[in-house]
Amino acid sequence: VVYVFTECDFSFFPGFGFCYSVIKGPTNATVLAGSEARFNCTVSLGWVILIWLSNGNPVLTVINSQGAVETSDRFTSKNYTSSDSFTSELIIRNTQLSDSGKIECSTQKPNESSFAFLSVQVNGSLFIKNSTLTVTENKTVEIVCEALGWAPAPDITWMTNDTFIDKSRYVTQQSQESNGLHNALSILTLTPTDTEVLTCLADIEALPNPQIATVTVIFCNSTI
């Protein structure tokens, strides 16, 4: 007797189930450093082994017969099984800048892997040296806002009394440190005609709201 097997026919042998596929792979995620990142990978029933890789390095293995094999406290998982599929949720705890990159879910079958990208961003510091500044009539001043230790470099904007200031009125310079973090220095030039509150805003995708720093410019009429 001669048996001819297709790929799915290998289930004829006990312990081998190759008639399965990735139904839905992970999706891209952007998170702040120190928080959790989560990725889901759903495969059809009959799967044998599922391996999660971060930038090409295996970080967690899920075996059908025994469950998850965790080698790091930072990479854990939760499993969900339905009537026709299995979902592995990879949980990356205390995310670090170095975790950014490709997150892959592999079933060890040729052409049966799926991947997404993780972007870990760093919320740095933001400050204006003076909280108040007194300016006399017809005097032009420069307000300096400094952002330190961000990733990626933040988008800097300015507001006055809750209204955005035109970008032509300020200049922003960026630099990168050896540790991969970015700094930004934004200089706003203005000639006040009244007392106003100036706000410097720094924003990155992972922040729910921009970080802000404010300064009150007190206008002093020279004729008084």
TrEMBL record:
Q: Which GO terms describe its cellular component?
A: bicellular tight junction; cell surface
Q: Which PROSITE patterns match?
A: IG_LIKE
Q: Give the record's GO biological process terms.
A: cell-cell adhesion
Record domain Ig-like: where: 14-108, 110-216
What InterPro entries does the annotation carry? Ig-like_dom, Ig-like_dom_sf, Ig-like_fold, Ig_sub
What Pfam families does the entry give? Ig_3
Q: Give the protein's recorded name.
A: IGSF5 protein
